[in-house]
Design a protein that fits this description.
alpha+beta, 28% strand, seven-stranded mixed beta sheet, globular
Length: 360
């Protein structure tokens, strides 16, 4: 057997498998540009790799590997900050999503007295509380979870803290029951240069999250804060661009349903990506398991893929929210689903279903 570590320019990336009925983790083989050859796919399949990617490909590779899709490694969820709740609702293009958001906000308003919401600048001490009482026991308990946020002792890997314990350009929102029990919390990052507030992490007590619409409550509070401080952009953070593997499909649908759109972000490069899992052989709009959704440049049309690639700004400019927002329509979702008979369902607003099979 030939192991991926022996292939020139190759490395292994471990991904969290979030399917509840799936096990543990999956592996992605990532090749440097110029190092992948078509015959390597069979080797990788035998070694059990879920997918293969070519990192920051050259235009010649995009033209050569027509059975791959072109996708950013990471996507940022972004929207212009609404000035009012009414403007937020009106900004949604789908009547279904407008009604759903109204329903969520009504639930939040009706249950406000059952909660105490507290927004403050983040301190290392508060981060430790959030990490130890919410993030690690709730997010870490998910099967195959890979925890991005470290223990408080290693917070310097993700953020800058002052000698006094303040975490620079971060806020936190904590949600309590009236008796003082902490049931949810989220971290917000402020980027003055980008004029943006980003919800970068959240963890909620499972029993309370849905009934009190805690995810929507956090976003509503974030929008109010961003508007009050004249931050032009609100973000629901960034995700690995493999929904159904690293990130749940439901999270993607929630973000899309609140007006957020996926855009390129500065961190993370572009990948030529091919799913090797032979079970995921159909493009579908249903949410049957197992399934993987990927936001792609140009969908499955090789000509459009090349054109979309050439339209993208250089990586150094992808931190400009105005620029990537104007290019948001280049990102088109493709869903890989198992061979399960099912009728088509509504795709979240702003998404285009690519209906041709990419892998046979």
């Amino acid at each position: 057997m030939v192991f991926v570590s022996s292939l020139p320019g190759a490395k292994t990336k471990t991904l969290a498998r979030v399917r509840e009925d799936g096990g543990g983790r999956v592996r992605l083989a990532v090749f440097q540009s110029g190092c992948y050859q078509a015959g390597m796919a069979d080797i990788l399949k035998k070694e059990g790799f879920f997918a293969v990617a070519i990192e920051d490909p050259a235009i010649a590779e995009i033209r050569e590997h027509k059975d791959f899709i072109l996708a950013p490694e990471l996507v940022r969820w972004l929207m212009p900050t609404p000035e009012t709740t009414e403007a937020w609702i009106a900004s949604l293009q789908s009547g279904h999503h407008r009604n759903l958001l109204k329903k969520r906000l009504k639930i939040i308003q009706g249950r406000r007295e059952e909660l105490r919401v507290e927004v403050r600048p983040l301190t290392v001490s508060d981060y430790r509380i959030w990490h130890d009482r919410l993030y690690r026991p709730i997010i870490g308990a998910k099967r195959g979870a890979i925890l991005y946020w470290p223990r408080a002792e290693f917070l310097s890997k993700r953020a800058k803290a002052t000698a006094e314990g303040a975490v620079v350009n971060f806020l936190r929102i904590f949600i309590y029951r009236p008796n003082g029990d902490l049931i949810g919390g989220s971290l917000w990052q402020i980027s003055p240069s980008q004029g943006m507030l980003a919800v970068v992490a959240a963890a909620f007590e499972q029993k309370t999250r849905a009934g009190h619409e805690l995810s929507a409550l956090v976003l509503e509070e974030a929008i109010h804060h961003a508007d009050a401080h004249r931050l032009r952009w609100t973000s629901y953070g960034s995700d690995p661009n493999l929904y159904g593997v690293d990130v749940g499909l439901g999270l993607q649908a929630f973000k899309a349903g609140t007006g957020m759109k996926p855009v390129l972000r500065k961190a993370g490069g572009l990948w030529l990506l091919k799913i090797l899992d032979e079970n995921l052989s159909q493009i579908r709009s249903d949410a049957g398991e197992p399934s993987v959704l990927v936001f792609t440049l140009g969908g499955d049309d090789p000509a459009e893929r090349e054109a979309a690639f050439q339209r993208q700004p250089p990586q150094a400019q992808r931190g400009n929210p105005d620029l990537v927002w104007r290019r948001r329509h280049d990102l088109k979702p493709i869903r890989f689903a198992a061979r399960l008979p099912a009728d088509a369902v509504i795709v979240p607003e702003g998404m285009m279903l690519q209906d041709r099979v990419l892998i046979s």
